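Page 47, continued from p. 46.
Same chain as before, 250 aa.
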Amino acid sequence: MNALQPLAGKVALITGGAGGIGSAISRELAAAGARVVATCHQNLARAEALIGSLPGTGHEVAQVSVLDSDGLRKLAIELASRQGRLDILVNNAGITRVVQHGDLDGLDDQTFDAIFNTNVRGAFACVRAFRGLLESSHGVIINLSSIAGTTAVGSNIAYCASKAALDNMTRSLARALAPSVRVLSVSPGWVEGEYAARADPAYLQAQIARTPLGRIARPDDVARAVLAACTLLDFTTGAIIPVDGGRPLA
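Result:
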């Protein structure tokens, strides 16, 4: 393994790769030598700008929704032809919106289903579509979760439940796909970015005050955890890796 570029020669697919956390992961894995495939659903220009900024060569954008199982299967065939392999799948695409936990009527069926379809079914659909490529390369799957899955504190009840389901699925898939493919969750708390910027400043400061390491996560913190899971934790599978500054300890 090249110590400076431990992912040289490998291909990584990041769903929602042009978002705040997705961009950081894309940059981190590209800097480590990987060829990055960033998927996007709508914001193609943003994804293309990201790909154009990455170090190295061979990166590409794939415009496909994680809800489009047929499109994902088609992409797997195209990647096998163009890239020849897939070593890393990062299920980063996810959605939510703020609904107070006590407002059960505010969490309508459409919102509930959309959150579960994207955050859980979409991740599963990606694993199902790219399984063959990942098994061929003895690859790794990283599911982007949240400590909301264990603390049950988050943007809404459905979001918290979806991340709990994603962590459970991580463990199930780790057992089902072993020994060919490792599967892990990376589980941040609050992360700097567009969502945190919309939060009430007093509430966010209270969360920081209750975090032992004294701040919320940065996208690069999450990206480095993904890189470590891909390159260093090669005897770890089915684990939920926190990136939360110790927040649940408070």
